[in-house]
Amino acid sequence: MRASLIQIAVNEDETVEARRVRAAALVREQAGADLVVLPELWTTGAFAFEEFDAAAEPLRGPTYEAMAKAASDAGVWLHAGSVPERGPDGRLYNTSLVFSPAGDLTASYRKIHRFGFDKGEAVLMGAGREPVTVRLPDTTLGVATCYDLRFPELFRSLVDAGAEILVVPAGWPERRRAHWTLLARARAVENQAFVLACGTAGTHAGVPQAGHSIVVDPWGEVLAEAGADEEVLAVEFDPERVARTREQFPALKDRVLGLEPPRG
Ligand SMILES: O=C(O)CCC(=O)C(=O)O
C-alpha cells in the first residue's frame, strides 16, 4: 500500500477557501497512491475556536464537494481529515470524511473525545458516539481524531471491529509533541496495527503546530516521520504485516476480558 499524509500548513494569512483549493490540488498530486490522508480541522485550524461557527458546513458542504472530486480525480482512497460540521440538530461536530476512489463518501466519523476540558472544542462541539471502521479492498481502516489518541479503549474497539490501519488526523500542538510520537507508537504496538497519524504545520490562534506526522508499523517501528513544516509524507508498506505480526507474537489473543473491579 502506498500512502501519502498531507501535513498541510494552517496559517492565518490564507483564507479557508484558498486552503481548500490548495488541499484539493495536493490530493490530486498523489495520484498513484492508494490512500491519502489530510489532518484535523485543516480548513479553520483545530485551535481557531472563534472560526468554528462561521466556517461550519453541512456534511455534504464545500469541503465534501472539493474532496469528493479530488479523490475521484486522483483515483485514491481519501481520508479528508475533519471539518467543523453543522449537524441537522444545529450542533457543531468535528467530523471526518472518508471517500472512495470513485469520490463516494464511504464513511464519516464524529470525534468522540473533544479537546479543551471546559473550553474550546469541548464546549463548542458535540461529541460523537460511534467508532468507525472503513473496509478497503484488502484491509480495514479504523479512524480516530487527535485527542482520541489518548484513549486506548477506542482503538481497541476499532481493532475488535477488524481495523489493521489506524488513521489519526490531528491538529496537535508543538508543546506536546513528545506525547504525540509516544502515543502513536504505543497505539501501534499494543494493537499490532499500522498507525498513520497526520498533523498540521504552521501557527494559528497563537498555537504553533507540531507537524511531525508519523507512520508506525505493527512492531512499533517508525517507518516515516515528517518535519515541522508543510510536507507530504509518502510511505509504502504491506498491510499483511498486521496478520503476520499478530500470528508470530499473539499478544492480542492473551487479553483477559471482564475482570472483577479492583479490590481495596
Ligand atoms: O491531546 C493533546 O495534547 C492535543 C489534542 C488536541 O489538540 C485536539 O484534540 O485538538
TrEMBL record:
Residue ranges occupied by any CN hydrolase domain in the UniProt entry: 1-239
InterPro entries reported in the protein's UniProt record: C-N_Hydrolase (IPR003010), C-N_Hydrolase_sf (IPR036526), UPF0012_CS (IPR001110)
Record CDD domains: nitrilase_5
GO molecular function: hydrolase activity
Keyword Transferase belongs to the record: no
Keywords in alphabetical order: Hydrolase
Keyword Cell membrane annotated: no
Superkingdom in the source lineage: Bacteria
Gene3D superfamilies, A to Z: Carbon-nitrogen hydrolase
Similarity remark: Belongs to the carbon-nitrogen hydrolase superfamily. NIT1/NIT2 family.
Identification of the protein by name: Carbon-nitrogen family hydrolase
